[in-house]
Amino acid sequence: MKHQNGAVALRAALLANMRSGHWRAGDKLPTERELSETYQIGRAAVRQVLAEAKERGLITQLVGSGTYVSKEAAALLEADDSEASGMHTSPAELMEARILIEPMIANLIVRNGTSADFLRMEECCTRGENAVSMPEFEVWDGALHQAIADATHNTFIKQVFQLMNRVREQGDWGALKMRSLTPERRRAYEQEHRALVNALKDRDEERARGLIMEHLVRIRHNLLGY
């Protein structure tokens, strides 16, 4: 699987191994180093993918011991599959929703965001800028958008963004994003991310909303051509 797109492949493999029963409750996962070598991504990207799986309750991590499939993993994935069976969201539908929703959350972040929230956003920006591969950059791109949602301190908004990140895991989105993400576009995204985080940190709602809209319109054009 080394030829597949790093973090995207790792995320997909974790889910596939658990769904198939190849990895069962209590089974130990390969080490971070082994996953990094197998999927040709940095250790930071591996940790981010594992953190997402842990947040979903799919794995547990024991210091000094390793990472294990959780007892609840099978039931959680079965529930997710049941929910997703009647829902497939196209990249175009996702972009429509993002353009409607994301500019509106600037107000909540300006009012509710903490210094810790902004530090997390800046960390995601830095990790993305230092990523050695496009898949690793994509991991930190997703982490930044979730950090922005978390800074609203609104449970409903955070759940909406978690759902959008699940849609980003679908094959259509991942394939389209990887085909469109050139080095030049990546640099533009990095600059836009920094500008947005700075605007939010300055509590400048109007500037932040404008930057979010510009960023999303650029992504839509790069992905979908309009």
Fold and architecture overview:
This protein has helices at about 5-20, 30-40, 45-55, 75-85, 90-100, 105-110, 115-130, 135-150, 155-170, 170-180, 185-200, 205-225; strands spanning about 60, 65-70. By secondary structure, the chain is mainly alpha-helical. Strands 1-2 form a two-stranded antiparallel ribbon. Helix 1 runs parallel beside helix 3 (about 45-55), helix 8 (about 135-150) runs antiparallel to helix 9 (about 155-170) and helix 11 packs antiparallel against helix 12 (about 205-225). The protein is globular and about 50 Å long. The mean pLDDT is about 85.
* Share of residues in strands: under 5%
Strand order of the largest sheet: 1-2
Largest sheet features: 2 strands, antiparallel
How would you sum up the global shape?
globular
Number of E strands: 2
Low-confidence stretches: none
- Our measurement of the CA-to-CA distance between the termini, rounded to an integer number of angstroms, reads 33 Å
Average predicted confidence as pLDDT: 86
Radius of gyration: 18 Å
Order of helices and strands: HHHEEHHHHHHHHH
Q: Percent helix among the residues? A: over 70%
Secondary structure blueprint with pairings:
Blueprint: H1 6-20, H2 32-39, H3 43-55, E1 59-62, E2 66-69, H4 73-84, H5 91-101, H6 106-112, H7 115-130, H8 134-150, H9 155-168, H10 171-180, H11 183-201, H12 205-224
Antiparallel strand pairs: 1-2
List keywords for this structure.
226 residues; mainly alpha; two-stranded antiparallel sheet; 72% helix
